[in-house]
Amino acid sequence: MVHFPIKQLPYAPKFTSAFLLMCLLALSACATAAKILYPVNEDPLSAKEGAYQLDPLHANVIFSVSHFGFSFHHGRFNKIEGSLELDPTNPADSRVYIKLFADSIDTNSSELDQMLKAKSMFNSAEHPYVVFESERITLLTEKSATIDGMLTMAGTKQAFSLNATFIGSGTNPLSGLQTIGFSGKGSMKRSEYHMNEWLPFVGDKVSFTIEAEFFRSK
After folding, report:
1. What is the pTM (predicted TM-score) of this model?
2. CATH of 44-216 among 3.40.630.30, 3.90.180.10, 2.40.128.110, 3.20.20.80
3. First and final CA of the chain: distance in angstroms?
4. Quick one: how far is CA 146 from the chain centroid?
5. In 3-state terms, what secondary structure has residue 32?
6. Is 131 within 8 Å of 162 (Cβ atoms)?
7. What pLDDT, in 10s, does the model give residues 40-87?
8. Which long-range contacts (CB under 8 A, 24 or more apart) does 140-145 make?
9. How many angstroms from the chain centroid is the CA of residue 19?
10. Fewest Cβ atoms nearer than 10 Å: which of 7, 33, 118, 171?
11. Contact at 8 Å (CB) between 205 and 187?
12. Tell me, what's the pLDDT at 16?
């Protein structure tokens, strides 16, 4: 009996196309089923109340600063912890806590990273954490709020505000845990935290963007 490689068979293209179509249909069916079984809630007032922990695998804190007026240089913190006490019926009673590990700063330049960890900047040896603790949450729209609190950085504590936007909540289909996500934006002057290196050539204003998911333990 003679065996032919499948690519030599006259019906191989039709077989391959049919197989790929079946795979695509199966994937589409799985995606549709996932949306039905694990719907995303887009109403923040319908989110589940309780204590949440920040998911470090799905959280990013990115900052940017003017570089000589030519561009905006970006960096991030690779190690983040946090928590959320959520009361959707009375958002003002909710609380947010975010802790960044200063030693995890990442600008895509190891030389610059070391400069930023030095005593004249973050001083990560003596002040290993950058901490934000909310004190007041004020609703602006159905899905947005101002989060006012205190930011402690390089040994100095100052008032800091985040403009937060609710993204969605629901059961995470992979973990099975109740999950909620937010985006946040804010800015501060680093000189107010005595981080004066390279001023005024490198900008004083530092802008932050936070993308974070929080999960509730069963």
Report:
1. 0.82
2. 2.40.128.110
3. 60
4. 17
5. helix
6. no
7. 989 988 899 999 999 999 999 999 999 999 999 999 999 999 999 999
8. 142/43, 142/44, 142/45, 143/42, 143/44, 145/91
9. 38
10. 7
11. yes
12. 65
Spatial separation of the C-alpha atoms in residues 42 and 54, rounded to whole Å: 19
At CB < 8 A and 24+ separation, what contacts does 146-152 make? 147/96, 147/184, 149/96, 151/188
- Across 174-210, b (16+ Cβ under 10 Å) vs e yields eeeebbbbbbbebebebeebebeebeeeebbebbbeb
Distance of CA 135 to the CA centre of its chain: 21
Q: Which two tokens stand for residue 196?
A: 């004066």
Cα distances from 169 to residues 93, 116, 217, in angstroms, run: 19, 36, 14
For the stretch 168-212, pLDDT in tens is 999 999 999 999 999 999 999 999 999 999 999 999 999 999 999
Q: Residue 165 has which token pair?
A: 């936007």
Return the ∠ at Cα 88 (arms to 82 and 93), rounded to 5°. 65
Alpha helices for the chain (secondary structure H):
12-37, 110-117
Q: Which residues contact 66 (CB under 8 A, 6 or more apart)?
A: 72, 73, 202, 203, 205
